[in-house]
Amino acid sequence: MPKATILIVDDMPENIDLIKTVFINESYSFITAHNGHEAIKCVEKHAPDLVLLDVVMPEMDGFEVCSRLKNKKETMLIPVVMVTGLDDHKSRLKGIEAGVDDFISKPINIIELKARVASLLRIKRYTDQLEYAERIIFSLALTVEAKDHYTQGHCNRLANYSQLLAKRIGLSEEDINSVRRGGILHDIGKLAIQDEILLKPGPLTPEEYEVIKKHPEEGEKICKPLKTLESVLPVIRYHQERFDGSGYPDGLKGEDIPVTARIVSLADSFDALTTVRPYRDAFTKREALRIMDSEADAGRWDKHLYKEFKNLLEMDNIDFLVNSEVFETRGVN
Q1: What is the average per-residue pLDDT within 86-114?
Q2: Beta bridge pairs of residue 5
Q3: Mean pLDDT of the chain
Q4: What span, in angstroms and rounded, lies between the C-alpha atoms of 24 and 137?
Q5: What is the strand order of the sheet 50-54 is part of?
Q6: Residue 179 pLDDT > 50
Q7: Which of 68, 146, 206, 312 is the most exposed place for a label (fewest CB within 10 A)?
Q8: Dist CA 220 CA 185 (whole Å)
Q9: How far is Cα of residue 36 from the mean position of the Cα atoms in its chain?
Q10: pTM of the predicted model, to two decimals?
Q11: Beta partners for 84?
Q12: How far apart are CA 49 and CA 43, in angstroms?
């Protein structure tokens, strides 16, 4: 197992030396910073496994450093232990609001410090393992797309369409994240479908179509063991359901279909229509919407959601946004 890297942040060198001495018999490696700005740069450069952070420092105090780290996706999961002589309730509350994971009071209790650091590093290792497993799942999802050059870029576009629509209708950040991730993972169940069916250049037989219809359930099975993907499972399982109950695998109808799945379903259908297939040319945006208009009139789509999706497509920069690398919608209106 590789050594854990700990960043010690303190403006007093003697305090840094003291902490290093505490861990002299442990197999950790250390990097140091003497102020808040140095700390931020060290984290960005070295990605430590844990930060031991002093509170009172010139220019940028420990609360601000912690808040900045916890508000960035790349660093938010790094445990931060605040080493402080401030023992009042107000300071502790401020630290908790900034995202501090634990506190150690000065003068330092050596046994307590070692135990808390070891505990947080165990959690960090577990978190890293989950992230690694999740990255593998996302990579597998993209291999489905890579099998068929006709679907190149589909997952990326779908993730972007979906999160833009989710933000437009006012969903929470958690739900926006779910539709973005669901857009990438929605078809991962096709890994379980034979290539001769999945890549067939002509229309499918009824028997082959029944096999294809299993992919939402297969996708759910693949992703279910990962707790971090729990909120994405409804998107994966229900993205082929339709508002009138004509979809699959469960024949859900109306509001029984989770809104995150309804969003991805709309985007998936539109992108499929406007993409070349081996058995037909791509429809233009106007032609695709004409088809979907008639489907909405027949009750296949949630009319309110479909109206918002059509309005989304009128944005001047929609093509640029949708074809960009998958991005977060923060700041995009």
Answers
A1: 87
A2: 29
A3: 90
A4: 39
A5: 28-33, 4-9, 50-54, 80-84, 102-105
A6: yes
A7: 206
A8: 10
A9: 28
A10: 0.69
A11: 105
A12: 9
Catalytic residue among 94, 124, 167, 190: 190
Q: CB within 8 A of 88, min separation 6: which ones? A: none
Distance CA 252, CA 237 (A): 11
Question: What is residue 105's three-state secondary structure?
Answer: strand
The yes-or-no verdict on residue 241 having pLDDT over 50 is yes
Query: Could you give all domains of the chain from N- to C-terminal order, each with its CATH number?
Result: 4-128 (3.40.50.2300), 148-322 (1.10.3210.10)
Q: Which residue did the predictor score with more confidence, 169 or 326?
A: 169
DSSP conformational letter for 91: H
Let me know if 241 is exposed, middle or buried by CB neighbors in 10 A (0-12, 13-18, 19+). buried
Strands (E), the chain: 4-9, 28-33, 50-54, 80-84, 102-105
CA distance 306 to 318: 16
Residue 240: count other Cβ atoms within 10 Å of its Cβ: 21
State which amino acid sits at residue 123: I
Pick from 199, 205, 94: nearest CA to 144 = 199
pLDDT at residue 328 in the model = 55
Amino acid present at 68: R
Give Cβ neighbours of residue 121 (< 8 Å, ≥ 6 apart). Answer: 4, 49, 50, 79
Euclidean distance between CA atoms 147 and 306, whole angstroms: 30
- Other C-beta atoms closer than 10 Å to the C-beta of 43 total 23
pLDDT for position 199: 85
* 179's tokens: 């539709």
CA–CA separation, 206 vs 209, rounded Å? Answer: 5
| Across 58-67, 138-147, 159-168, 214-223, least confident range | 138-147
Instruction: Supply 297's token pair.
Output: 């009139």
Could you give the CA distance from residue 25 to residue 84 in angstroms, rounded to a whole number?
Answer: 24
